[in-house]
Design a protein that fits this description.
Elements: H1 4-7, E1 8-10, H2 11-19, H3 24-31, E2 34-38, E3 53-56, H4 62-67, H5 73-83, H6 85-91, H7 95-99, E4 124-128, E5 130-132, E6 136-139, E7 145-146, E8 150-153, H8 158-165, H9 168-177, E9 180-182, E10 186-188, H10 191-194, H11 207-227, H12 233-244, H13 247-256, H14 260-267
Parallel strand pairs: 2-7
Antiparallel strand pairs: 1-3, 2-3, 4-6, 4-8, 5-10, 9-10
Helix pairs in contact: 5-6, 8-11, 11-12
């Protein structure tokens, strides 16, 4: 956002903004701009612990689209205040700081241009950049945005991708050939490196294995929903994912050095 103190808010602040809206129409307009957000530290292996934080998402170009006008900032601000008085009451104290941001849209209350805003609201894999081992999780409904300490991956067959990314095989390969190590056990899962991870492509021959992996991932995610973490079934099921893929197949995949980029394209 370039100014998290303004654009990332607590549950309490969100509720306050919505409660003070003058009517239901303003409330609905405002609610549509406030999205739940995960920080890197919130994302765990197969689950996440949302901290009740929300991000105000007003993308670059939004003001011109809503007002159907191309206005100087002072006039545009007045128009936005008419539509979102309570939201702007929250943002206005940060105006001077927001105007100094490098990352902003056409006006100080807008976020910077981003071609992939729609991807946040799709089914996706999410992960934290700095982690102990693999910390990949799953956002089934496309509910969450993420901060710049985390990344997202959209596409097809994401439960299969998730199972592989969280596997010991992936951790071994990534730590050996792709990652930046941090101390004895820390791993930096940078997006550009994760895209180059050798991932087994889905073929007609291995559809059965893929379905088994996806079924095990479903059980892990179900345990997460029931117990709030990956405890209970997830530990056992995680171990079963490790043994689902034949050893000779693992070796072949590593030798081919296939990347997620190519595999997702193949799946699509």
């Amino acid at each position: 956002t370039g100014l998290n103190e303004a654009f990332i808010i607590s549950d309490e602040k969100r509720n306050e903004i919505l409660a003070n809206c003058r009517d239901e129409a303003e409330r609905q307009r405002t609610e549509a701009l406030i999205k739940p957000i995960l920080r890197g530290r919130d994302i765990k292996r197969y689950y996440y612990e949302w901290a009740g934080l929300w991000v105000i998402v007003i993308p670059a170009g939004w003001t011109k689209k809503v007002t159907q006008l191309s206005l100087i900032e002072e006039e545009a601000e007045k128009e936005v205040i008419k539509l979102f008085p309570n939201l702007m009451n929250h943002l206005l104290p940060y105006k001077v700081k927001a105007q100094k941001r490098d990352d902003q849209g056409d006006y100080w209350w807008e976020l910077r241009k981003c071609a992939y805003y729609p991807e946040f609201e799709k089914e996706k894999v999410v992960w934290q950049e700095l982690a102990q081992g693999a910390q990949f999780s799953y956002d089934a409904k496309g509910e969450f945005f993420v901060t710049n300490t985390a990344y997202i991956l959209t596409g097809k067959s994401l439960k299969y991708v998730l199972g592989y990314l969280n596997s010991k095989l992936n951790v071994f390969a990534y730590e050996k050939w792709y990652c930046t190590k941090l101390g004895q056990s820390g791993v930096r899962w940078l997006n550009q490196h994760v895209q180059e991870i050798p991932l087994p492509p889905i073929t007609s021959e291995n559809q059965g294995i893929v379905r088994r992996i996806e079924a095990l991932v479903d059980k892990i995610l179900e345990a997460r929903e029931r117990f709030g973490t990956e405890r209970s079934l997830s530990s056992e099921q995680s171990e079963r994912i490790e043994t689902t893929m034949p050893q000779h197949t693992k070796t072949t995949f590593l030798k081919k050095q296939l990347s997620i980029k190519h595999v997702i394209k193949k799946i699509q």
